[in-house]
Design goal:
The structure holds three protein chains of three kinds. Chain A is mostly helical. Chain A has helices at 3-16, 24-42, 46-76, 83-90, 96-113, 115-118, 130-163, 185-215, 227-248, 261-292, 295-305, 310-328, 332-335, 338-365, 373-397. Chain A is globular and about 65 Å long. By secondary structure, chain C is α+β, with helices and mostly antiparallel strands. Chain C has helices spanning 14-26, 40-46, 53-78, 91-117, 149-158; strands at 4-11, 32-34, 138-145, 163-166. Chain C has a four-stranded antiparallel sheet. The longest helix of chain C has 27 residues, at 91-117. The radius of gyration of chain C is 26 Å and the shape is rod-shaped. The chains are: A mainly alpha, B mainly alpha, C alpha+beta.
Chain lengths: 416, 442, 167
């Protein structure tokens, strides 16, 4: 595909301005979620509902933010291979503003989740108290959302400027492109690099805060210094997997023609690498706690690896998130096959979703019984509906290739 | 590196191997002397017993183990540059990776001496290896110390082989220019390399697999070193973040030492057109990243020490920042996580003086980091009645300087006898010579 | 009587060199190429199969993994005492030993694979090799009848050879 063909494909796609956003299956997904939530509440299973909600909340915000951070990392490392999939990764940012609204429900039902709200832990009360915790989480979410949207917005503006350079700008982009043209792309790219550094740093800090507040504090007596990093690395891992899934849907679309097996190969290598890093971060915590054998630390592990049903689930998590991807992704041919990669990524996401369940459910329910499966499934489907809707909105509205990026030329025909 | 040709690269790197001047012998001689001094101090310690060192109850791990961790850390940058960045296809590694890799091998060798020195009775060091014996005794593989023996010896073996494999095509190039006895030696070392299509075909794959194996290895080695501490329950050591934090710290100090050594090297060998400021800038950016990771680890450890509500944990962290070792602690914090932030400014990360100053400070800081971690935690364990401070004696200081002599002596010998810049890989990133317009694409 | 000669040509430019390789490949002749650097275009033109070194690595890795775990498990079972509150044979810390052995054996097997496959070290003088082939010349050498030498020299020259020699 050469530059002009790509330009036309992008222009056609965004000018079509597809309004038929709510496909029947999306409405069904959203409805299932809402119904599951309400029925669970009415049936008095508030804790189960909130638990399922929290699991999905920490899972999906991680995916969306992780995908945006993937784009940030590709920019910071000047990865030529990654340019064709950069915008696809960025499209997950459409879910981020929604997360702030979704968090309100956690604030409303927090009592059922965080044991320390009603029974404060004396020496931690200064940190673990509802108002401070909610404001910390809100500040983190808002900060990350705003930074991500500015980052993605700047990038889109450059692309639109390049696409409509010397052409008539469609009505709905006029405002964005007022007093803006291709001559400002270079300067904007410098600013984007600075913003990327800020985003990456804020990501590490904010997502550590979220990990400690939303997951670790559920068991207020348990501490692991690596836990924050474990969570944000896991989120990045799911972000890569999710980007692969999204990219696999672009095969066959006109904008997807510049995505080749090379992109999938490299994404596959990245996925492989982070499967190992994620496994390493797990083992680093597990070995230290196992070896130290201190009751205040081991109770957390024992509950999750020696008591049923969690013990079985722990092995499933290990298999799905580490062993299976590790063995499968050694193969080069599989990494280059978009459909295979889609299913492997779905498997990994399932593994990580179960892992979040494993981290959260034993602490919240406080017993070893299995969570209510129907509530889990319906609420998960609801979240899935929300993220697909927001991403589809993004796809229909914006150019799906970083057309204005100077490094894109390495992926275009007839240019070097 | 714009505008260089294959031949120019070939010649300017091979010129670095020209017969040395007197000044060179003086430098190598000085470091050899320093090394000999260290060895004699060690001999003195063997004769008189470990008592002449400062280590005594409760601080049984002193400067020896500090040095051990420090040198293992130094080793890591070489593998990072040669293996990890190879997998990431980063072009800026090409001209610097050979010297970084040599540094790895020498640093691991230096590090490996310290546990032996620390043993006291060094002649029984083989007890750590699984050798069948009439007592039916085996090393305890559950012990992190034995894990470390395995990890370090694996690392030494693998990094040395990787280093040698990388050298083969270059030595073949050197062979063609050498004469006399040197020619004979280089011929043997080149393993009969001629650059045939069959040789390249297997070589490329083997190199890739070596890189793929060395990458997890380098991460595991410093993780295992960190577990020497973290697997205990000593306050300040028992921390799950230790493994990744030590790995980041290792790369932090290693890259800093690469910069410190390469700045004079490129000046002496006049290869400024091959090892460019851009190479240094890229390293500085990685240092910035590792500096931030190390800073993150410092912060999160303090916060969670408070959050955990564990009085012992909190006490040790308070004491580190305000007690007898506070100067060392603040040196570590400032040099490792604050000074590297200067690299945010392009002016500093592209100025030779800035790079040199920051990288030296980082090395000072990283040495103190290990010192603070090891000494403070041992000095103030659970029982206040058993507290006691530590300071190194002249024996430990003498041996420490001796090890610097050993390392630098090896490095200088390497720089004169082997190509310290990879001829082949630098050629690879030059534009491919073509009749119809060369391009940089490969 | 036909005497065999080794004819060897050197090239300065990769594009010329690739054309030569393609030419002789289409004629199904056996030849050896020399290059100072690994180069994708040359590899593509040669179209050789992927090296089997990876199999050595894999085999070494698997043997290493098994040996590491077995060594740790065997020695722990031999010395069957609870140490440090840990059961004698336990997989969790043995992961480290298993891992290190995987890497060690994998690396040594790769080294072995390289030595066997690339037939190193070989100090025999290669006919047709010239010192410039490790500097900046790309070389090709092939065995030919004495009668062919002149025509081959011509065809090398049409491809832009810098120098053609035979012995």
């Amino acid at each position: 595909m050469n530059r002009e063909q790509l330009r036309q494909a992008l222009a056609t796609s965004i000018e079509a301005n597809d309004k038929s956003l709510f496909k029947p299956y999306l409405i069904a997904l959203l409805a299932v979620g809402v119904v599951g939530f309400l029925v669970g509440m009415l049936a008095g299973e508030t804790q189960q509902v909130m638990q399922a909600y929290l699991i999905n909340f920490v899972f999906w915000i991680g995916i969306a933010q992780g995908a945006v951070i993937l784009s940030v990392v590709l920019r910071l490392t000047n990865a030529k291979w990654g340019r064709p999939i950069m915008r696809i990764a960025e499209s997950a940012s459409a879910f981020l503003p929604v997360t702030i609204l979704l968090f309100i429900i956690i604030m409303l039902g927090g009592e059922k989740l965080f044991i320390w709200i009603n029974e404060p832990v004396a020496h931690k009360a200064a940190y673990l108290n509802a108002p401070f915790m909610y404001s910390r989480v809100l500040v983190s979410l808002v900060l990350m959302t705003v930074l991500s949207l500015i980052y993605v917005g700047n990038s889109i503006r450059n692309d639109l400027a390049a696409i409509y350079h010397g052409k008539i700008v469609p009505e709905h982009f006029r405002k964005l492109l007022t007093n803006y043209d291709v001559s400002r792309i270079e300067k904007s790219n410098d600013k984007q690099t600075t913003l990327s550094v800020i985003l990456a740093i804020c990501y590490a800090v904010c997502y550590s805060v979220l990990a400690i507040d939303l997951i670790m504090s559920l068991d207020p007596h348990w501490v692991s210094t690596l836990f924050g990093a474990y969570y944000f690395i896991g989120c990045f891992y799911t972000g890569i997997a999710f980007t692969i899934i999204m990219a696999s849907f672009f095969i066959g679309r006109p904008e997807g023609e510049i995505i080749g097996s090379k992109q999938f190969h490299d994404l596959g290598k990245l996925l492989f690498g982070f499967a190992i890093v994620n496994g390493d971060f797990f083992y680093s915590q597990f070995l230290v706690i196992w070896y130290g054998n201190l009751p205040e630390e081991t109770h957390y592990i024992i509950e999750r690896t020696q008591h049923e049903p969690w013990a079985t689930m722990a092995y499933v998590v290990l298999l799905l998130s580490f062993i299976a991807p590790f063995i499968i992704l050694i193969n080069k041919k599989i990494k280059m096959n978009p459909v295979a990669m889609r299913w492997i990524s779905i498997g990994i996401l399932l593994g990580l979703w179960l892992e979040r369940t494993l981290l959260i459910a034993p602490s919240v329910s406080g017993n070893t019984s299995f969570p209510n499966v129907w509530i889990q499934i319906t609420i998960t489907l609801g979240f899935l509906g929300i993220i697909i809707t927001s991403i589809k909105y993004f796809w229909s509205k914006y150019p799906m290739v970083v057309y204005g990026d100077p490094l894109l030329k390495h992926s275009l025909e007839g240019e070097k | 590196m714009e505008g260089l040709t294959y031949k120019q690269v070939n010649d300017s790197v091979i010129n670095t191997l020209a017969p040395p001047r007197k000044f060179y012998f003086a430098i190598v001689g000085f470091f050899a002397l320093l090394f000999a001094m260290g060895m004699s101090v060690w001999f003195y310690m063997i004769v008189n017993g470990l008592g002449v060192a400062g280590i005594r109850h409760p601080v049984m791990w002193g400067v020896f183990i500090t040095n051990f961790v420090f040198w293992v850390g130094i080793a890591h940058s070489g593998t990072l540059i040669s293996a990890i960045l190879y997998l990431f296809r980063a072009e800026w590694r090409m001209s610097i990776y050979r010297s970084a890799e040599a540094m790895t091998v020498f640093a691991v060798a230096t590090a490996g001496m310290y546990p032996l020195i620390h043993l006291g009775r060094v002649w029984v060091a083989y007890w750590t290896l699984p050798i069948p014996n009439e007592m039916l005794l085996w090393p305890n593989f559950k012990s992190p110390l034995i894990m470390d023996v395995i990890a370090i010896s694996t690392y030494l073996t693998v990094s040395a082989s990787f280093f040698l494999i990388g050298l083969i095509p270059d030595i073949a190039a050197v062979r063609e220019k050498a004469t006399g006895i040197r020619k004979k030696i280089y011929t043997i070392l080149s393993f009969g390399w001629h650059g045939t299509n069959e040789q390249w075909r297997h070589y490329g794959r083997a190199y890739l697999f070596f890189a793929a194996l060395a990458t997890p290895l380098v991460i595991s080695v410093h993780s295992v070193v960190s577990w020497d501490f973290a697997l205990s329950i000593v306050p300040g050591w028992h921390s799950t973040i230790f493994a990744p934090y030590f790995v980041a710290g290792a790369i932090h100090s290693g890259l800093a030492l690469v910069i410190t050594l390469l700045i004079p090297l490129r000046k002496i060998f006049k290869v400024e057109n091959i090892i460019t400021i851009k190479n240094f800038e890229s390293m500085a950016k990685v240092i910035l990243l590792t500096g931030l990771i190390v800073g993150y680890a410092y912060a999160i450890e303090y916060f969670l020490a408070w959050y955990s509500g564990n009085p012992y944990e909190l006490a040790i962290f308070k004491w580190r920042a305000s007690g007898d070792y506070a100067p060392a602690f603040w040196t570590m914090v400032i040099c490792n996580s604050i000074v590297p932030l200067l690299f945010f400014f392009k002016k500093i990360r592209t100025s030779i003086v800035g790079l040199l100053v920051v990288s030296i400070l980082i090395n000072v800081g990283m040495w103190f980091e290990r010192y603070v971690i090891i000494i403070t935690s041992l000095a103030h364990e659970f029982l206040p009645a058993a507290w006691g401070n530590y300071s190194p004696t002249w024996v430990e200081i003498g041996i420490s300087f001796g090890s610097w002599g050993f390392f630098l002596m090896l490095f200088f010998l390497f720089a004169k006898f082997l190509p310290s810049i990879s001829i082949t890989e630098v050629k690879e990133i030059l534009p491919t010579p073509k009749r119809k317009g060369g391009s940089n694409e490969h | 009587m036909n005497t065999k000669k080794i004819i060897s040509a050197s090239f300065l430019y990769v594009d010329d060199f690739v054309n030569v390789i393609k030419h002789f490949k289409s004629e199904k002749r056996k030849f050896v190429t020399y290059s100072p650097v690994p180069n994708h275009e040359i590899e593509e033109a040669l179209g050789a199969k992927k090296s089997k070194v990876g199999l050595f690595t894999l085999a070494g890795g698997i043997i290493g993994l098994i040996s590491g775990f077995s060594l740790a498990g065997f020695t722990a079972a031999e010395w069957n005492l609870v140490l440090g509150g840990k059961p004698p044979v336990t997989l969790i810390p043995f992961v480290v030993i298993g891992f290190e052995f995987t890497i060690l054996f994998g690396a040594l097997a790769t080294l072995l694979g390289l030595i066997i496959n690339a037939k190193l070290p070989s100090y025999k003088k290669l006919k047709g090799y010239k010192p410039e082939f490790t500097v900046d010349h790309f070389g090709i050498s092939l065995e030919a009848d004495e009668t062919e030498v002149a025509s081959l020299t011509d065809s090398f020259n049409t491809f832009g050879a810098k120098e053609v020699t035979y012995e």
